[in-house]
Write a structure and sequence with these properties.
Layout (H helix, E strand, L loop, with lengths): L1 H17 L2 H13 L5 E5 L4 E6 L4 E6 L4 E6 L3 E8 L2 E7 L16 E8 L6 E8 L11 H19 L30 H5 L1
Length: 197
């Protein structure tokens, strides 16, 4: 009984470890990017994360603890903003000067990092790095730690956005699938007598 109980406890602990939120997000981003992310930011307790593969020029966002992901090209990233209590505290956008963070403490309600993409359907992705309800949570960052982390990511995004945008290749025409293919229609029916002769 003791051995069986110990085995079930170990199995349960391994299952909890495997399904831990940040591990699930990391696995989902790795799967979407096709490689281990070079840079990764996870909003703990909120089920969201963002990962970059600089070699492939790709960025992936994940929410619902890795249940949903979107993949973008790095050149579709237009900018990033650090939002403190509803006000943009720091920002960097492609083709603009970086606006540095003036305050390094004193957030009252929340600290968010917003990534802006050139995508009309999903134009932005926001990670909440800290909120006023996080004080009692275990392993939660403080407001000043969240501001410092957000400021580091603004600097990182500035260095990424300063790089020249690679020219996109012309789109390659794709052959329609077998279900979409239809035989060409002639305007006039074929003359069967011509074939017989």
């Amino acid at each position: 009984m003791a051995i069986a109980g110990g085995a079930f406890t170990a199995l349960g602990a391994a299952f909890v470890w495997f399904l831990e939120e940040s591990r699930r997000i990391r696995r989902s981003l790795k799967k979407v990017l096709g490689a281990e992310p070079h840079a990764l930011l996870i909003a703990r307790g909120r089920g969201k994360g963002i990962g970059f593969d600089f070699a492939a020029g790709a960025v992936a966002v994940s929410w619902d603890a890795g249940g949903w992901c979107l993949l973008y090209r790095v050149d579709e990233l237009m900018g990033a903003e650090l939002v403190v209590d509803g006000q943009v505290g720091a920002r960097t956008h492609r083709g603009e000067q970086r606006r540095a963070l003036d305050q390094h403490g004193g957030a009252q309600d929340h600290v968010r990092l917003r990534f802006v993409f050139d995508d009309p359907t999903y134009p932005d992705f926001t990670l909440e790095l800290w909120s006023s309800g996080d004080e009692g949570k275990r392993k939660a960052a403080t407001a000043s730690e969240a501001l410092q982390e957000g400021n580091r990511w603004i600097a990182r995004m500035e260095s990424l956005l300063r790089r020249p945008v690679p020219k996109r290749a012309a789109p390659v025409p794709v052959a329609p699938s077998a279900a979409e293919r239809t035989p060409p229609q002639d305007d006039e029916p074929e003359d069967e007598s011509a074939d017989a002769a």
